[in-house]
Design goal:
The chain is mainly α and about 210 residues long. About 60% of the residues lie in helices and about 5% in strands. It is built from nine helices and two strands. Strands 1-2 form a two-stranded antiparallel ribbon. It is globular and about 40 Å long.
Length: about 210
């Protein structure tokens, strides 16, 4: 699959990462930041259907909407509707499923310390990225998972961001921005390759 939407235009880097992180947050279970996520969605140039699903969730039980089930093993991508935006959203949904399963592996003290660092308004954006990177290195050592290195990094950076936002919902916007910037600097090529290697018109199964 060519990494282009159906009209032939390549999605900008930041747009791809915005969709990835926003969709991951939206599809995580047991979140305390649904209201903050809805507000963030109104500020971001993410697809309207993502915002609508966020609204639907707020009207239910605060967890994942009923049509996004943790146990769903596969999703079919039709060739006439398989835009890159949709592929990125599906990747984020599967990452969220995995995150729900492994989040207990992330030590609470790591999350608390990272949240405290994000609450320090004197830190620059570069310093926050450095704090997030340090937390990722620590999580990589303690969270044992049978997956390739870059998948594990992407999974854990998103999970750390989610857990910090869950611990302190007021930090959601800052955590989102820093996570997007971190992925753009360190994992964007991997994310683009993931989207490129999922063929339209085929069954997309769990890839971890």
């Amino acid at each position: 699959m060519d990494p282009q939407v159906s009209n032939g235009s390549v999605l900008p880097n930041e747009h791809i990462t915005n969709i990835l992180v926003f969709s991951f947050f939206k599809n995580c279970s047991n979140c305390n930041f649904r209201v903050e996520l809805e507000v963030l969605g109104d500020e971001l140039p993410v697809p309207a259907y993502l915002k609508e699903e966020c609204d639907d969730e707020l009207q239910t039980d605060g967890n994942r909407s009923s049509h996004l089930r943790l146990g769903r093993p596969e999703i079919r991508l039709e060739a006439d509707s398989g835009s890159q935006e949709e592929v990125i959203q599906i990747i984020a949904e599967h990452l969220a499923q995995i995150g729900d399963e492994i989040e207990s592996k992330v030590h609470p003290s790591l999350v608390q310390n990272l949240a405290m660092q994000f609450m320090n308004m004197n830190l620059s954006e570069a310093e926050r990225r450095e704090c997030l990177g340090t937390a990722l290195e620590q999580a990589m050592q303690t969270c044992l998972m049978d997956m390739e290195l870059e998948k594990k990094k992407l999974m854990l950076i998103l999970l750390l961001a989610k857990k910090v936002a869950n611990h302190k919902p007021c930090l959601l916007r800052d955590v989102f921005r820093t996570t997007v910037n971190f992925i753009n600097q360190n994992l964007l090529t991997y994310v683009r390759n993931l989207a490129r290697n999922i063929p339209t018109g085929s069954i997309f199964t769990r890839w971890v």
